[in-house]
Specification:
Strand 1, helix 3 (51-63) and strand 2 form a beta-alpha-beta unit. Helix 6 (153-163) crosses helix 7 (174-185). The protein is built from 29 helices and 22 strands. The strands form 5 sheets. The chain has a 6-stranded mixed sheet, with helices on both faces. The protein has a 5-stranded mixed sheet with strand order 12-14-15-17-16. It is α/β, with parallel strands linked by helices.
């Protein structure tokens, strides 16, 4: 079969054949087919060892779009492209009829079967059995076809021959027929056994030769179909017509036609060998032709290249003469221009040095008036003066110190440029050094509810550096981090020591505003300010930090994403070998901040937007009021009048007001109706339509004293409307009354929770209270439930959720969660027999001990005492 396929391939140059033989092993054949599928073959020819085990892998290949040709044997499935082979059922019937003719309808037959699971065995056995079953005088004994060393077929066969008078042996193939003959010959019986085989192949041990030698009585021709399989495969791959089932013809070979069959097969083999030799000669001639063709193409290509090079060389020489003349003229012009540039550069450098000198001198001059300003300020701040004047004085002091800091930074740049800032490195304990700096910012972090972490696995590490320089670096980094991180944000410092690289790495990371990719690329450029940062700095701090670190042989890199956060990574070398002898200071210097200490004692207003007053500024102010007005003097007057009682936020137009209302969630908003960009009615509608701000009471101010304008404001959702000019005392009283009414509404909400009952107020606030309380109740048993998770579920920020819940319910989010958990625990204690630890878990508490402590502090009884006193007996 394989030889036929190889010979047929000589007529199909577009095909190549890979053959794998499983040697009768089902698992090995499955592995071979998987390898073919993985190698992306175009078509699969399979002769299944056994039908059942091979069916699934053949279906898999077919379902993947690979055409499948079944050769000689079939599977148990119809999922194949084409079949090439003989009708084994018909072959079995032919063998049965031969046996009947030999026995004259009476006698004993031994059937030596083939491989049990193969379709040839199944078909031949059924066909043979069908014919013999019609002759009662004929009995059939079956023997397995395993004639190997470990098989029992030979022993079964010999026992049958010795114990019965066997007339005919039907073997499912010629190889088993030859083995049966050899086994029978060893018994030395006088009568010759008639043997019928199947295959009829040519060759020394083939069925034709065995019939010719009288070893077999006859054999049924079973065509291999190798050539036909290749022809069908070619038709399939070239989209030509083909038949799904290609049944090959068969015939009986016995003493009457064996000589003719031998002659025909010998002649066919001879012709096939001639074809193979011609094919090999043709392949050799094609190879010679291809080599000659390649040489011809190569010579032609080289000739074309030579002609092209000659043309190019001629043109090159011609152009070169022209270019040389042009270059000589240009060179003379360049020399002249270079001399002019050198002269201009010299003058520019002189002018630049003059400017820098002037700038340095005037920077020094600034120190005198700043000293005269800051001295009296310090004296005034020591006096017992009113808080409002003290705030103004502190504001003056803050900006004077800020101006002094900028002057110091400019002077540092000047020193670095002139090489007059020498490094004085000493060995210092770096963890303690950095803790001292970060400790100065802890008060600011606490006042703004910023999580400020300091993380290190190394409690102590000695590093050589200039303390005055590195101090400035980290002061700048922390200042930037607090400046661009919102309240309730996160800032962390992490120290890692890498002994292998001999370095220490410090990471300062926040989750603040972040920077765009363009801003990150220029973050360390001197005087560079990215978008949205122009009003918050000069562009000096990071550039100065980078240069100071480089003087200490360190480096700094930044990674940042807009609205996600910023990460600064600083690396300093361990040891002192990287410093020159002149840069090393024998004694460790005392760590002193480079800024005036009063700078660090200021409140967090130093680091936030100056148009927003921090709630920390006056600790006893309970409510925050947002003023939206495009008239600067009105804003200033209202701020001065209301700031003694409320925390004031300012917005210069409607869009800014909407943004600040969503970000800060104030307790009350005062807005002018007539504004240039976005009028007050639009602001009011936007706020009332937003779940984040719908609960905030709004007082509108209008210059029009008409009922229509007031009704328009009230219909849009305003809580009150005041006409200009207005009395400030009246405005304050209106604010107090509105906030008191909001307090009463809050108490109503709290009293009615959970919110299945009637609620008053706006429908949006009612919906929020419903959604919030139901969300808490659904996740109450989750011990990890927090404000962050609730904010995400309700599509709000943590700050917005906190301020809205506080405004409507009077609870913080966490207080409300604890309140509801205790309520659920009380219910379970009075209605359930569950253990207290299980009740704590169902109520969302992580530990029974914490639950018991909290329960007793809130209820006055321990859970056990409460259960004993109130248990209803319901299970």
């Amino acid at each position: 079969m394989n030889a036929e396929m190889e010979r047929e391939l000589t007529f199909h140059d577009d095909l190549s054949l890979v053959i794998k033989d499983a040697e009768g092993d089902n698992q090995r054949q499955i592995e071979h087919i998987r390898e073919f599928i993985a190698s992306n073959i175009d078509l699969l020819i399979v002769s299944p060892n056994e039908a059942g085990p091979i069916t699934q892998i053949v279906e898999e290949a077919y379902n993947r779009g690979i055409p499948v040709v079944l050769l000689d044997r079939k599977t148990e499935s119809k999922f194949y492209t084409s079949f090439v082979g003989a009708d084994n059922y018909e072959i079995g019937k032919i063998a049965g009829n031969l046996a009947v003719n030999y026995l004259k309808s009476k006698g004993q037959i031994i059937e030596v079967k083939g491989l049990q699971g193969s379709t040839p065995f199944i078909g031949r056995h059924l066909g043979f059995k069908e014919v013999i079953s019609t002759y009662p005088g004929i009995t059939v004994s079956e023997v397995d076809g395993d004639w190997g060393e470990t098989g029992t077929a030979k022993q079964q066969f010999l026992e049958l021959v010795e114990n019965t008078d066997v007339d005919i042996v039907f073997c499912h193939n010629d190889i088993m027929a030859l083995e049966a003959y050899r086994a029978y010959s060893k018994l030395k019986r006088s009568n010759q056994l008639r043997i019928i085989g199947v295959d009829g192949l040519p060759g020394p041990t083939g069925g034709i030769q065995l019939v010719s030698e009288g070893i077999m009585e006859a054999t049924v021709l079973y065509p291999t179909g190798g050539a036909q399989a290749i022809q069908v495969a070619s038709n399939i791959l070239n989209a030509r017509p083909f038949q799904k089932d290609n049944i090959l013809a068969t015939t009986v070979i016995d003493s009457t036609n064996v000589r003719v069959m031998q002659m025909q097969t010998n002649q066919i083999i001879s012709h096939q060998n001639d074809i193979i030799r011609l094919s090999e000669k043709l392949s050799w001639q094609k190879s010679v032709f291809r080599n000659q063709q390649f040489v011809l193409y190569s010579i032609t290509l080289l000739l074309l290249i030579c002609i092209t090079l000659l043309i190019f060389t001629y043109r090159f020489l011609k152009e070169r003469r022209k270019t040389n003349d042009s270059l000589r003229i240009k060179n003379e012009e360049i020399v002249k221009q270079r001399n002019e540039v050198v002269e201009l550069a010299t003058k520019a450098e002189e002018a630049n040095q003059a400017k820098l000198k002037f700038f340095t001198n005037i920077s020094h001059e600034f120190r005198t008036p700043l000293t005269l300003i800051m001295g009296p300020l310090d004296d005034l701040l020591r006096l017992n003066i009113e808080d409002r004047y003290r705030k103004d004085l502190k504001l003056i002091q803050k900006n004077a110190l800020r101006l002094l800091r900028l002057i110091n930074q400019l002077m540092d740049f000047r020193k670095i440029e002139n090489g007059k800032m020498p490094v004085r490195a000493s060995e210092n304990e770096f963890v303690a050094f950095l803790r001292d700096i970060s400790a100065s910012f802890e008060k600011i972090a606490l006042s703004r509810n910023i999580v400020f972490n300091f993380i290190t696995d190394t409690p102590k590490v000695m590093v050589w550096f200039d303390t005055s320089m590195v101090d400035k670096v980290f002061f700048n980094l922390y200042s930037n981090a607090f400046k661009f991180t919102h309240d309730y944000g996160r800032i962390s410092t992490k120290i890692d020591v890498d002994e292998l690289r001999n370095q220490v790495t410090i990471v300062v990371e926040d989750n603040g505003q972040g920077m765009s990719r363009e801003h990150v690329e220029h973050a360390f450029d001197r005087f560079y300010q990215g978008e949205n940062f122009q009003a918050q700095g000069t562009g000096l701090g990071l550039s100065l930090s980078k240069e100071l670190l480089e003087l200490n042989h360190g480096r700094i890199i930044v990674k940042s994403e807009k609205d996600i956060g910023t990460r600064f990574e600083i690396t300093l070398m361990l040891g002192k070998s990287h410093f020159q002898e002149t840069e090393i200071q024998a004694l460790a210097s005392e760590h002193l901040f480079y800024e005036d200490e009063t700078l660090l004692n200021l409140t967090d207003s130093l680091f936030v937007d100056e148009s927003v007053k921090s709630e920390k500024y006056v600790s006893d102010k309970e409510f925050t009021v947002l003023i939206i007005d495009d008239h600067a003097e009105i804003r200033g007057m209202l701020e001065r009048s209301l700031s003694d009682e409320f925390v004031i936020l300012l917005a210069e137009d409607g869009q800014v007001g909407i943004k600040k209302a969503r970000e800060k969630v104030p307790d009350l908003i005062i807005s002018d109706i007539m504004m240039a960009k976005t009028d007050g009615i639009e602001v009011l509608k936007s706020l009332k339509a937003d779940i984040k701000t719908s609960h905030i009471p709004v007082i509108m101010i209008t210059a029009k004293n008409t009922l229509e304008d007031k009704l328009k404001s009230i219909k849009a959702g305003a809580d009150d409307c005041i006409t200009k000019p207005f009395n400030l005392d009246l405005l304050k009283e209106r604010i107090r009354t509105t906030l008191q009414n909001r307090q009463k509404l809050r108490e109503h909400y709290v009293h009615e929770l959970p919110s299945e009952t009637r609620l008053t107020g706006s429908s949006l606030d009612k919906k929020f209270i419903n959604d919030f309380s139901l969300t808490v109740e659904e996740h109450l048993s989750d011990s990890n439930l927090s404000a962050n998770e609730l904010a995400e579920m309700l599509a709000l920020s943590r700050v917005q959720l906190y301020r809205k819940v506080k405004a409507l319910l009077g609870y913080s989010v966490n207080e409300y969660i604890v309140h509801m958990r205790l309520k659920k625990a009380r219910h379970l204690l009075t209605t359930s027999n569950k253990p207290i630890s299980e009740i704590a878990t169902h109520s969302g508490f992580k530990s029974a001990a914490y639950f018991s402590t909290l329960f007793k502090s809130q209820v006055g009884l321990s859970p056990k005492e409460y259960k004993t006193e109130h248990f209803s007996g319901v299970k």
